[in-house]
Amino acid sequence: MHTAFSIALAGLFSLSCFDSASAQNVRRISFGPAAPTEKVAYTLQTVSVRASCFPPQLKGILAYIALRTGRRPLVTSGFRPHAGRSHSQHRNCAAADIRVPGYSERAIVAIAEDAPGIGGIGRYCNGIVHVDIGPSRRWVYC
User: Fold this and answer.
1) CA 87 to the chain's CA centroid
2) Is the pLDDT of residue 7 over 80?
């Protein structure tokens, strides 16, 4: 048993030496700097949801909700430059419409109300909750 282990270890060592020796002769191709990987506390419902412009304060609210629920909020809507209402925080990339799987909209609203920096909170009867960093206000649309 000891001999088989020694042979296997010697084989692995020789392969690693071969790889490093041949790696010196390999021409490396660079495609530029790697994109920074940022951990986010939310998930986008679809690739068309625009959230890359979310300010740190809004990301903090979403992180707070994720921490309190143990689940990452699903962002159904983010930046919408042509949002219907002129005062919509979606136009400024300062709002997110979310769902949290396994939580009712009432439970999400209750958690969001304690989030640092929260502004507006809206509740829709389809299970979606609106959170933003604008002026403090509350609404329910059914």
Assistant:
1) 26
2) no
> What's the structural domain count of the chain?
1
Q: Could you give the C-alpha distances from 99 to 5, 39, 85, 104, 136, in angstroms and in order?
A: 54, 19, 22, 8, 20
- Per-residue pLDDT reduced to its tens digit, 27-62: 444 444 545 555 788 999 889 899 999 999 999 999
Is 14 among the domain residues? no
CATH number at residue 54: 3.30.1380.10
Query: What DSSP designation does 140 have?
Result: E
Per the structure, the complete domain to which residue 56 belongs is given by: 43-141
- With respect to residue 24, please indicate whether it lies within any of the assigned structural domains: no
- What pTM was computed for the model? 0.71
DSSP characters for 32-58?
Answer: SSPPPP---S-EESSTT---TT--HHH
Asked, for residue 26, whether it belongs to a domain, the answer is no
Q: Which of 6-10, 68-72, 98-102, 103-107 has the lowest mean pLDDT?
A: 6-10
Residue 79 structure tokens: 């930046």
User: Distance (Å, rounded) from C-alpha 79 to C-alpha 94?
Assistant: 7
